[in-house]
Amino acid sequence: MRAIGVIRKSRRERISREEFEELLRSAGYDVVAVLEQNREEHPKYNIGKGKLEELKELVRELGPDKVVFANRLTPSQAYNLWKELGIEIIDKWQLVLEIFGKRAHSKEAKLQVELASLQYEVPLVKEAIRRIKLGDRAGFKGMGEYQTQQYLKHIRYRMGRIRKELEKVKADREVKRKRREEVGFILLALAGYTNAGKSTLLNALSGEGIEAKNQMFTTLDTTTRRFKLGGKRVLVTDTVGFIDGLPPFIVEAFHSTLEEIVKADIILLVLDVSEPWGEIKRKFLASINVLRELKTLDKPMIVVLNKRDLTTEEDVRDKAMKIGEIIEERGVNVSRVVSISAKLGQLEELYSALEEVILTLPKYGAFEITVGEPEKVPQVMALINAIGEVLNVEYGEETRIEAYIQTGMIKELTRLGVGIRRLNQPNQREGLEDGQ
Hints:
The chain is an alpha/beta fold.
């Protein structure tokens, strides 16, 4: 498939040509030309009339299969452009959905892509109906008014069915998530711009071989793997990559997947530190905007500067400092900024940051565990080390252990017949409450 790309830049829309061309290639298009214009949006065609004439000439000369706009097109603009150019017109978000359609493998991912596609079609079908009523032959996909009306009803019915199926997936995932918390898992979510190396980091943490290609939107299916951190049991989930200006209809369609970020204990926001600073800044702010939409900016977050092996230590330090300045300026809640190479397994800074942040989580607390039966002490100690950190041990007729543990594991400890009391501060026993 051959395509001509069109980019209109303005004060409000700063579009990366490199990223747009990569999107086109990821969708399988041969990019025969890219037309650029600097101006504010034209209400009828998005681009200016002069640039439209230039585009017409390119279409006649090159004979592409599609014209793809990097800007979001209104239904009216898409129709006007189709009428002028006589070939299929799509915009960036239809292009993204084409990529999603090719990369979706699980039933859930396919449903999410279908829902997003149908949501996108609704205003297009409404525009076709409006134009038919005005006497314009603008049936959707060659359909007449009645067929177009019926198709709109079908879209709405199908969207309702998909939402119900996704609600079931959401409920099943919530049951699994609660069980994971009960058995003492810390939940991490990998978030960040597409192609930042999240899947490679998942592989490095878990020691597994999840598909990790150097292309956009490799991951659409939620993948969760486990690993141990100093004895603590951790689950890390890879999520769909972000992109600048991610529209609400895609966020809504993929909510059941993005909910892994909402429910996580800690967010690992991954950035490609080898990119130019301007790109890093743009992608960092775009990711923060998505996290703001998801209402997750109050969660503990570690910014992970990945691919440090592709640049110098000085460059990494400089970019980390600039990220820190943005964090301070915007008031974003970030616990640490670390640099790693997921490809080379250089994760020391990340492990250190996780150890620190985990012990600050609300689900952790300082407790005194009293063990009356000496033979149970090794079992209790092993369990505590798997879910927390031992602070102090006093052996005697009753062994007293002060430790940070996950509150979700209190039930499992009490099944061993031990006493548990919350400490206001580590190494303090005043103001204790039984069973708290």
